[in-house]
Amino acid sequence: MRKINNLIKILTYSDILIISGWGLVNPIFAVFVTSQVKGGNLELVGLAMAVFLILKSFLQIPVARFIDKKKGEIDDMMVMAFGTLIISLVPFFYVKVQTPIQVLALQVLHGIGAALITPGWCAIFTRHIDLHQEAQEWSVYNSTTSLGAALAGALGGFFAEKFGFQLLFIIVGTICIAGTSFLYFVYQDLRMAEQR
C-alpha cells in the first residue's frame, strides 16, 4: 500500500472519531426516544430522522454553491469546521432533552450542521486525494470509518444499559469534539498551501 498524504489522513482520523462518536448512539436512538422522552414513540423517531435527512439534503446544495463561488479552500474549511462543531455540540444538548419538540429542534440543528459539513469535506477530500490512489484512499476511509462505527454500535448499547443515556451523550459529544479538533491541522495544511 502506497503512502497516503497527510491531509487525507487527518480528514480520515477526524471522521473516524466523529462517525464513531455518533455510532455509539445512532443504533439505539429509537430506544432513547421511546424510553427517555416524555411522549416519545416510534412516530417521533421516524419524524426526527426525516427532519434531519430532509434538512441535510436540501441545505447542502446552497451551501455547496456558496463555497464554490469563493476561490480557495479556506472558506470550504471554515464552513465545514463550523458544521462539525455544531454536530459535536448536539449530543451535549441531548443530555437535557425531555420533550418531542426538543428532539425535533436538535434534529434541525444536527441537519443544518451536517449540511454545512458535506460539501466542503467532499471538495477538500476530492482535491487532495492522491493521483492513481483514488480507489485505495476512498476504501481506506470507508473501511476505517465503518469499522469505527461498528465497534461504537456494539459499545453504545452496553454503555447506555450500564451507565444511562446522559453519560452516553456526554461521551458522544466528547469524542466528536476530539474529532473536530483534528480539523485545525487541516486548516494549517490548507493555509500553508495557499501561501505557496
Describe the structure.
- With 196 residues, this protein is an all-alpha fold.
- The two termini are 29 Å apart.
- The chain has one domain (6-189): Up-down Bundle (Growth Hormone, Chain: A), CATH 1.20.1250.20.
- The chain has helices at 6-23, 29-36, 42-69, 74-94, 100-128, 134-163, 165-181, 183-195.
- The chain is globular, with a radius of gyration of 17 Å.
- The mean pLDDT is 93.
In short:
84% of the residues lie in helices and 0% in strands. It is mainly α and 196 residues long. Helix 3 runs parallel beside helix 5.
Task: Set out the fold topology.
Layout: H1 6-23, H2 29-36, H3 42-69, H4 74-94, H5 100-128, H6 134-163, H7 165-181, H8 183-195
Question: Oligomeric state of the chains?
Answer: single chain
Architecture per CATH nomenclature, i.e. the level-2 architecture = Up-down Bundle
Could you report the average pLDDT, rounded to the nearest whole number?
93
Percent of sequence in beta strands: under 5%
Structural class: mainly alpha
**Main beta sheet: strand number and arrangement?**
none
Q: In angstroms, what separates the terminal alpha carbons?
A: 29 Å
Please count the beta strands (DSSP E, at least 2 residues each).
Answer: 0
